[in-house]
Every structure is written in C-alpha cells, then in structure tokens.
Design goal:
Layout (H helix, E strand, L loop, with lengths): L2 H15 L7 E7 L5 E7 L2 E3 L2 E7 L3 H8 L2 E8 L4 E11 L2 H10 L2 H9 L9 H15 L10 E15 L7 E8 L2 E7 L2
Antiparallel strand pairs: 1-2, 1-5, 3-4, 4-7, 5-6, 6-7, 7-8, 8-9
Helix pairs in contact: 4-5
Bound molecules: flavin mononucleotide.
Amino acid sequence: MNPVIQFEKWFDEELEKSNLKIPSACCFSTIGKDGYPNSRFVSLKEVKNGKFIVTGPLNSRKGEEVHKTPKVALTFWWTATERQVRIQGDACLISREEAIAYFEERNKDSRIVSVAFEQGKEIKSVEELNELFLKQKTIVGDKSVACPKHWGGFSIQPKRIEFMEFEESRLHKRTLFEYDTNKWTKQFLQP
Ligand SMILES: Cc1cc2nc3c(=O)[nH]c(=O)nc-3n(C[C@H](O)[C@H](O)[C@H](O)COP(=O)(O)O)c2cc1C
C-alpha cells in the first residue's frame, strides 16, 4: 500500500473528529545552519501528487535552512484519533504560480503581514509592529495584495513515513514505510 494514501485516510478521520482551530498544524523540522535540528509548527496546505506542501516566507530562517539542506521532517500528533505520523523527505521549492495560488487563499490581514514584515528579523517593540501593520493596511486599502517575491513554499517528497497508533494495551502499533529503489517497503516496529 502507498503510505501517502494511508496518510490521507488518517488525516480525513482526524479532520472529521477534531474540533481544533488548526487541525492541519504539524511540526516542521529542518537542519539548522549550525547543525542543530530546528523545529516549528506550520500548517500543512495539502498533499499534492504524493507530496506534502507547506508555505511561508522563503527568506525566513526555515527558508534559508531548507535552501542549505533540503532534508526535512514533518511530524503530526492527532489528538482526536490519538495517532502520530512522522515523515522525512526531500524539499523542493514550489513554482511561483503555485505560490501565488496558495498566497491568494490566505486572508487579507495575513497577506498584509507577509508584505509588511520580514519573518524572523528583529523589531524594536510591539508598538512598532502595530504601527508598521496599520501603515501597510492603509497603503493597501481596498486594493488586492500581491504575493511578495520572497513568499513561497516547499513540496516535500516523502522518503520515510511512520504511523503510530495508540492502543489501550500500551502495545502501540508502529508501521514504518521506506521508499527505496522505486518502491515502498513496510515493516512493523516494536512500541
Ligand atoms: C499552528 C501554527 C501554524 C503555523 N503555520 C505557519 C505556516 O504555515 N507558515 C509559516 O511560515 N509559519 C507558520 N507558523 C509560524 C511558525 O511556527 C514560525 O514561527 C515561523 O514560520 C518562523 O519560523 P522560522 O524562523 O524558523 O523560519 C505557524 C505557527 C503555528 C503555531
């Protein structure tokens, strides 16, 4: 079985049961420039042609880290179904057209934030943050907000996907899929 199909099935089951505001949240891990792993939550945009899509500013720390080392991980903990999914894979930049399409799905304030700020850069105060935002909001007015050049995303081609299902018995079920020489192999792991 293709584990990406299994992922989509589990995700649908979680979405059906979950009452979380952002059920697509997942931990996105990169290899830091100094070699330390670096993780933060992002929201999974979709699974497209077997690849996992995440988006955000490319000139951010994560963007620079992926550019240097495109080996990444995505980790999900789904509370409603009590399941964990761990994905490791190779990230590629999505096209400009795809980035624009994802950008246009964002609400206006989020788009304004993407234009007004450089994610991760230092700012002197919260007041300055508010001022910059309001200034940009006034500039934009009723006009549409174009996708900034530095905004985009990654398409993650999975190499390893592990599914873990919590069991009352504590004998949690772990299934590891690995992609090698054009096919997925499957093994069960001890809990
Ligand atoms: C639930 C949740 C979802 C988030 N989704 C995104 C996202 O899709 N893209 C993004 O760039 N940052 C997202 N963030 C913010 C990131 O966690 C992080 O603060 C930001 O990307 C900067 O990380 P970096 O400095 O390592 O690049 C999200 C945060 C949370 C808590």
